[in-house]
Request: fold
Amino acid sequence: MVLAPTDFTDQEYAKPRAAFDKALASVTVASTTRGMAVGHDGLKVPVTTASAELRTDQFDAIVVVGGQGAMGSLVNDAALLALLRSAAVQGKVVGAICLAPVVLARAGVLRNLPATCYPDARVIRWLTLNGAEYRAGSVVVSGRVVTASGPAAAEEFARRILEALGRPPGS
Reply:
């Protein structure tokens, strides 16, 4: 899971993380730098890996957590963008929620694919300008790419990520 060092949406991390833990998935938490990430509502999450240290052969999926921080730091993280492109090309599961689908779009992962995001005109415009086909809805799955609209969709988003990985929730 990749989150911004500050201002990520707490629920968009906590709910999927709980589902992944329940499914006994091994989760690495990454950000632009190591240390303690702090969510919009104050959730503190230890970051063990910087995005520049990640390699696609280390995981089966990359899940990008939303929130204003995604627009501030993740959307311009060259190492993360390259990692996302590589993961998509290799057929890894790639997911993003709320504002984070913009990061996938910026990486070119959503080109010519249906995707959803936080339903704000500016965010939708970012997606479409980067080649995505916006679809209104809580979660949109396009092959091994999963996007979600926001905190209310966090549990379904996690379930769809696990399904894409071939791991039933709670397995």
In short: The CA atoms of residues 115 and 134 lie 5 Å apart. The chain has one domain: 6-164. DSSP finds six helices and eleven strands in the chain. The radius of gyration is 14 Å.
